């Protein structure tokens, strides 16, 4: 079973509702929680494979399968993969992978029960390609 966890800080200059709406646009079936600690806000969200459908759709529409696959497979450990996308580009419904950004990132973790399940999820999001076209397996 796929588990998805998302985190992003909400800075004092940002509108909490707009950040929540942006997350819901990219991950429609995600459940959002706002945590506050010492005046700092953090959006945490939880979902399943269904919550990744819009992200997958954007990756395919932007034709960034190879880049996405390299990011998804780079940080694999314990049947999970972690990656970050740029918050500023996500506001306009675009995917741009980032390691860190002064304006903030949206950190995404995908967990599976077994390595082969993680491989299937990665293949579903961003399959291997040949000359830019997904390879049928």
Question: Describe it for me?
Answer:
The chain is α+β, with helices and mostly antiparallel strands and 137 residues long. It contains 5 helices and 8 strands; from the N terminus they run E-H-E-E-H-H-E-E-H-E-H-E-E. It has helices at residues 16-26, 53-61, 65-74, 87-90, 115-125; strands at residues 3-10, 31-37, 40-47, 76-77, 80-86, 105-111, 129-130, 133-134. Strand 4 (76-77) and strand 5 form a beta hairpin. The chain is globular, with a radius of gyration of 15 Å.
- How confident is the prediction overall: mean pLDDT? 92
CATH superfamily: Ribosomal protein L5
Can you tell me the overall shape?
globular
Domains, number: 1
pLDDT < 50 stretches: none
Could you describe the largest sheet, including whether it forms a barrel?
Answer: 6 strands, antiparallel
Q: For the CA atoms, what is the radius of gyration?
A: 15 Å
CATH topology: 50s Ribosomal Protein L5, Chain: A
CATH architectural grouping: 2-Layer Sandwich
């Amino acid at each position: 079973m796929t588990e998805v966890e998302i985190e992003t800080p909400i800075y004092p200059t940002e509108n909490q509702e707009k950040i929540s709406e942006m997350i819901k646009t990219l991950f429609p079936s995600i459940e959002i929680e706002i945590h506050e600690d010492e005046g700092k806000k953090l959006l945490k969200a939880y979902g399943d494979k269904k919550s990744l459908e819009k992200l997958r759709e954007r990756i395919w529409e932007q034709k960034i399968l190879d880049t996405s696959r390299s990011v998804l497979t780079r940080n694999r450990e314990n049947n999970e993969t972690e990656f970050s996308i740029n918050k500023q580009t996500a506001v306009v419904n675009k995917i741009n992978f980032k390691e860190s950004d002064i304006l903030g990132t949206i950190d995404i973790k995908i967990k599976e029960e077994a390595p082969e399940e993680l491989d299937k999820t990665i293949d579903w999001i961003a399959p291997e390609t040949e000359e830019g076209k997904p390879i049928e397996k």
